[in-house]
Known about the structure:
Blueprint: H1 8-30, H2 32-59, E1 106-108, E2 119-122, E3 138-139
Amino acid sequence: MSKKGFTLIELLVVIVILGILATYVGTRIMGKPEEARRTQARLQIQALENALKMYKLDNGDYPSTEQGLGALVEKPTVGNIPSHWREGGYLDKPRVPKDPWGHDFVYLYPGYHNPNGFDLFSYGADGESGGEGKDSDIGNWDGSTEGQ
């Protein structure tokens, strides 16, 4: 009488093969969230650039470094007070978004990389200036966004 089924060895081989496949697929997928965060940061920088350009169209100049990105959601009370600040602000939401790692974007006007415009950037995953790979800065001067 023959019994059909798998032997213990056959089951172990299948489990090992599935484990190897899961490890391979898992490592391939695990690298993608960081790419997604960097892409999201670039898109947020582009959206903030557009809002800053609208601010300049209405008021004749960009907000100062001191006024910062907060000038896009609240009328500045320091520095050069804008005369035609748009009621409701320049962003869809009443707050300046944080970068994908939960840090504030950095805004400088006039910019170091864009002396006739502004620098807008994220410090990346580590939240510190410089770095490589996932820790490298993402800015509007690196060719991925417009800049001025």
